[in-house]
Design a protein that fits this description.
The chain has helices spanning 2-23, 30-40, 55-63, 77-89, 103-115, 125-131, 135-139, 150-154, 187-196, 225-236, 248-260, 274-285, 320-327, 347-358, 362-377, 384-391, 395-407, 425-458, 463-470, 483-486, and strands spanning 45-48, 70-73, 94-97, 120-123, 143-146, 177-182, 203-206, 214-220, 241-244, 265-268, 292-295, 310-313, 337-343, 411-415, 418-421. It is an alpha/beta fold and 487 residues long. Helix 15 packs antiparallel against helix 18. It starts with a helix and ends with a helix.
């Protein structure tokens, strides 16, 4: 036992040296140290730590102590590019592999992978799925890290079904130790993550979801008064900052209002051209620029600008989880920063509409299964896009339903993107009833999320304590700096 403790201590000291010498981090947070020690002992580990608290260092410092590659799954290619650049600047061995690579670059990356050794491999869940049975299986990675792991629970059911299959990929990869990282996860979401990644008796490292330098506040504003209130607030707050809107229409309206008020600003949303979005992001990220970025939630994941002085939510996000993720992008330098929610109860309807539009519903699931059964009866494999048209649903909905039917063991993927029946058509139809019930449960959960964000906006109690209680703390302390505490 003493020998084991000595080895663990030596490993942790080695990780501390890597953090200091390679990444310039003089001291590990207790949560970072505990997670790294667990991983180096071969324990699956789930880490929930606030944005800006140093989650990435956990996999980076650990990976450089392994003699085999570490796979890091990220949700966004732009995020991976940023991570790759920063790791290269630190002299860390890193490669990125995703669908955007040219054939020559892809061959070079695969050749480097084949050499094995200490290496950080950045990829997407979709690319990992395509390579797990071949190149990556041969190198037997030491660790599989899932960054932004809450996406497994939030996105896997909807438009990223590859997230649901990450757990199944552990076996062809040689059963590497698993690390899941996220900034926000309720006890229910934590269980969802560990179940889906098939983590064995995982070590859970959970830090409180609020940082003491963030000053939380909420203003209830109605209708036409909101744009005036927002402009007055933004003029008063120190730049740079981010203003989050739920819709592209609101982004354009707020950005135009700020331009008329001669407040230096930019905008970012999914309907803009990729080149324009990239240019806007580069401007905002320059250390000397003091812009106000007006954006949808498409902007921000992986944004590491330390001096963001405020986050204003012009419209409510879809959940308290999303709010904490986005608000946590302020004040990474440790200085006092403001997180303000402008709450109009009517905005809840906008989120309800977005959720209905973005999620499969029970009626869609039944139509997709009807179309699927026709192909299964003929013994033919089928792609989700071939089900979408007769079912009158988006292709994303067909993909999500197929992934969930696969999870229920009713169909299976015969090759990438093609499914065939694993059960009788009668069982598949029965499974559709089960799936419809799941989708109805998720609809109810969505409604509860909106009720929670409304309760947060209207509470007269400490806002930090409200958030910490939501994420599972039984007796959280008051922060002393939010608008409720100051009142």
């Amino acid at each position: 036992m003493a020998r084991g403790r000595t080895a663990a201590s030596a490993n942790l000291n080695a990780a501390r040296r890597v953090a200091k010498e390679r990444f310039g981090i003089p001291k590990l947070h207790p949560e970072q140290a505990r997670a790294i020690e667990a991983l180096l002992s071969g324990r699956d580990t789930l880490v929930v730590m606030p944005t800006g608290y140093g989650k990435s260092l956990i996999y980076q410092a650990t990976a450089l102590l392994f003699d085999r590659p570490t796979i890091v799954v990220s949700p966004l290619i732009s995020l991976m590019r940023d991570q790759e650049r920063k790791l290269r600047e630190r002299g860390a061995p890193v490669v990125r592999i995703d669908s955007t690579l040219r054939a020559t670059t892809r061959r070079q990356v695969l050749a480097r992978l084949g050499k094995g050794g200490s290496l950080i491999v950045l990829t997407t869940p979709e690319t990992l799925e395509s390579l797990a049975g071949s190149t990556l299986a041969e190198v037997k990675p030491a660790m599989l890290c899932v960054d932004e792991a809450h996406c497994i629970s939030e996105w896997g059911h909807d438009f990223r079904p590859s997230y649901l299959r990450l757990g199944a990929l552990r076996t062809p990869l040689g059963r590497p130790v698993v690390l899941a990282l996220t900034a926000t996860a309720t006890p229910r979401v934590r269980k969802d993550i560990t179940d889906r990644l098939k983590m064995k008796k995982p070590v859970e490292v959970v830090a409180p979801p609020h940082r003491k330098n963030l000053r939380l506040s909420a203003n209830v504003v109605w209708g036409d008064d909101k744009i005036t209130s927002a402009a007055r607030l933004i003029r008063r707050l120190q730049r740079p900052g981010i203003v989050y809107c739920a819709t592209t229409k609101a982004v354009d309206q707020v950005a135009s209002a700020l331009a008329r008020a001669q407040i230096p600003s930019a905008r970012y949303h999914g309907k803009m051209k990729a080149a324009e979005r990239a240019s806007t992001q580069r401007k905002f990220m320059k250390p000397t620029r003091r812009l106000v970025m007006v954006a949808t939630s498409a902007f921000g994941m992986g944004i590491d600008k330390p001096n963001i002085r405020y986050i204003v939510h012009y419209q409510v996000p879809g959940s308290l989880e999303q709010y904490v993720q986005e608000a946590g992008r302020a004040g990474r330098d440790g200085k006092r920063s403001d997180c303000v929610l402008l709450f109009d109860p009517n905005d809840l309807r906008i989120q309800e509409h977005l959720q209905e539009k973005g999620r499969s519903n029970p009626a869609q699931a039944r139509r997709i299964v009807d179309a699927l059964v026709a192909w299964v009866d003929e013994g033919k494999p089928v792609k989700p896009k071939e089900l979408a048209l007769p079912a009158r649903v988006p292709v994303t909905a067909a993909r999500a339903v197929c992934a969930q039917l696969e999870e229920l063991g009713l169909i299976h993927m015969v090759k990438r993107g093609e499914y065939t029946g694993r059960a009788t058509t009668r069982r598949i139809r029965a499974g559709a009833t089960d799936l419809a019930a799941r989708l109805e449960t998720r609809r109810i959960q969505d409604a509860r999320h909106l009720q929670t964000i409304a309760a947060y906006a209207e509470t007269e109690d400490c806002r930090s304590a409200f958030i910490r209680h939501y994420f599972g703390e039984t007796r959280p302390p008051k922060c002393g700096i939010c608008d409720s505490c100051r009142r």
